[in-house]
From TrEMBL:
Ranges where the SWIM-type domain occurs: 48-85
Molecular function GO labels: zinc ion binding
UniProt xrefs under InterPro entries: Znf_SWIM (IPR007527)
Naturally occurring in which organism (per UniProt): Candidatus [Bacteroides] periocalifornicus
Highest taxon of the lineage: Bacteria
Keywords in alphabetical order: Metal-binding, Zinc, Zinc-finger
Protein name: SWIM-type domain-containing protein
């Protein structure tokens, strides 16, 4: 992207946040390390170092040491881009401007700022305090900036304060719901509150950090249903709020805060049993991690038993419950839970592997049959073939050769298995005298399944060139492309003739650049098959018949130019 219009290349939410950081003076230092390479310090919830490389107006590299990992550009990098561009615009030299060692934050003290500075200096402390308090009453954003600027100052506010503050920050939406821009702007305002919560953790104000995070989770999640488009920026804020609870616990807060976090996680997950959002999953993980006493373990188990919406979510929760039981209640309890939930494919697979290790092949077969049946009943046909492979491995170990071959054929035909995995075994097992009839029946089954690629590969392995030619001829001509060089040389003129017919039919029916490109590719393949004279005849015919098609003539020119260069 270019420095003069980078706005067109960056997400609107990140762009607005970065612009706000720049305008509020967050770019504290900006240094030109060498020509084209810049380094800056940007103030946020912490001070972050940003490096920018620009060559001929093109932004070649951006790097920031902040933890943001939701996109290619963060708000701190955007703020620095604005700062660099402003310096270039103010200087007559543009990109060649020499940025002196350290440039202090903001836009500098222009005449307007000088006048404001004089005005502030002329006011009394009481006048300034009165003005600030008046402005704070109706400006939630200003309240956030004030608290972020002085996070260590004791401000006695309770949960009700943050409830009201978030209410003012989110508003109601212009038409009773939030469009994409409104959602992005709302997320930008909430982001400032998240910075305050992080600062509260650092200053030891754990209760306020807890209040901010939980208020945002409650109110923010409720807002998603009123967003015209679920903008990812709001979802990101809610996930960050759940991360704040994790950071709060890592700061070793008092026991009452730890208990409050556990209670909140249990309540929140029970109120949203589907766990359809990432932050709800994060809260469930926190509850599982926090549970220590017998009562807490029991409550988490009760919670896990009640969770899960669709089949995938229930499966995920059951895996969590198994791991939780294993860590808190021991192997026997976890094993009992697994046995009672074999409808979970993962548990069924684990029990199968255990039976195979114990060489209990009867039990292994029973579990594999159950897994196959469950997958078919649930319509998860992609999971059927792995169970067939497991059944096949049991048949091999138990010496059931007929069952082994039956399963190999089923995997090849019904589940479109790889020819190389199953065909050689089938051929080796079938007596030579029976092989032609077996192969004919196998070919019919593969055609019935539409497994043309598998059948074509088998014909190649068996050197059945005429059946292969007839099979591919029934498909689109491009079906020959993967096999044309494998045919004996006597088949190449016949393939080239098919390509020639296809070229003429394509251009008779269509007149667009994509078709011209495909037609010329077919002509190249005719040449590669050793039929150069036929290719030249086609080109000559096309130049006469379609001489008014400029794009086709250009494609033919390129084709012949490439031929000349190769010669």
């Amino acid at each position: 992207m270019r420095i003069d219009d980078f706005e067109n290349e960056i997400d609107a939410t990140i762009l607005s946040r970065g612009q706000a950081y720049f305008e509020e003076g967050a770019v504290m230092e900006l240094e030109q390390v060498r020509q084209g390479l810049y380094e800056a310090t940007v103030a946020g919830s912490d001070d972050y170092i940003v490096e920018v490389e620009i060559r001929n107006g093109e932004v070649k590299a951006l790097e920031c040491d902040c933890p943001y990992d939701y996109g290619p550009v963060c708000k701190h990098e955007v703020a620095v881009l604005y700062a660099i561009r402003e310096i270039w615009e103010e200087s007559e030299e543009g990109e060649n401007s020499k940025i002196p060692g350290i440039r202090k934050k903001g836009r500098g003290e222009d005449e307007s700022m000088s006048a404001l500075t004089s005005l502030v200096n002329s006011l009394s402390l009481e006048e300034l305090r009165s003005f600030l308090l008046h402005e704070l009453r109706g400006d939630g954003g200003l309240q956030l900036r004030l608290q972020a600027a002085f996070p260590s100052q004791p401000v006695a506010v309770g949960r009700d304060y943050y409830e009201k503050l978030v209410g003012r920050l989110v508003g109601r939406g212009k038409r009773g719901y939030y469009d994409r821009d409104e959602t992005s702007n709302m997320a930008g305002r909430i982001d400032g509150l998240l910075d305050i919560a992080k600062a509260k953790i650092q200053s030891g104000d754990f209760q306020e950090a807890f209040d901010i995070a939980t208020v945002l989770l409650n109110k923010g999640a409720a807002l998603l249903s009123r967003c015209d488009e679920d903008d990812y920026s709001l979802c990101h804020c809610l996930y960050e709020a759940s991360e704040i609870l994790k950071q709060l616990l890592e700061a070793n807060p008092p026991r009452r805060i730890r208990d409050a976090v556990l209670e909140y996680c249990l309540w929140r997950c029970k109120s949203h049993p589907a766990l359809s959002e990432d932050w709800d999953g994060k809260l469930l993980d926190l509850a599982i991690t926090l549970a220590e006493s017998e009562e807490e373990v029991r409550r988490v188990i009760d919670l896990l038993e009640s969770l899960g919406g669709n089949d995938w979510e229930r499966r995920r929760v059951q895996l969590l419950e198994y791991d939780f039981l294993l860590s808190k209640c021991g192997e026997e309890a976890a094993e009992s839970f697994m046995l009672s939930h074999l409808d979970n494919d993962e548990f069924c697979q684990r029990m199968f592997e255990q039976a195979m290790e114990e060489k209990d092949y009867a039990r292994a077969r029973q579990l594999a049959e159950r897994g196959r049946r469950q997958s078919e009943e649930k319509g998860k046909y992609g999971f059927v073939s792995p169970w067939l492979v497991r059944l096949r491995s049991v048949a091999k170990l138990t010496g059931e050769s007929e069952e082994y071959l039956r399963l190999s054929r089923e995997l090849l035909v019904e589940h479109l298995g790889k020819v190389g995995d199953y065909f050689p075994e089938l051929k080796a097992a079938i007596p030579t005298t029976q092989w032609p009839a077996y192969l004919e029946a196998l070919a019919k089954d593969l055609e019935r399944r539409g497994a043309t690629d598998s059948l074509a590969e088998i014909y190649c392995r068996e050197a059945l060139w005429e059946p292969l030619f007839n099979l591919l001829k029934r498909r689109v001509v491009c079906g020959f492309w993967a096999y044309e060089q494998r045919f004996p040389t006597e088949y190449r003129p016949r393939i080239a003739d098919l390509y020639a017919v296809q070229v003429l039919e394509m251009l008779e029916s269509f007149a667009e650049k994509r078709i011209y490109t495909d037609a010329c590719e077919l002509i190249r393949r005719i040449k590669a098959l050793g039929e150069g004279n036929l290719a030249q005849q086609i080109i000559a015919e096309l130049r006469v018949k379609y001489k008014r098609r400029r794009l086709l003539m250009e494609e033919l020119d390129q084709l012949e130019k490439g031929t000349d260069e190769s010669v």
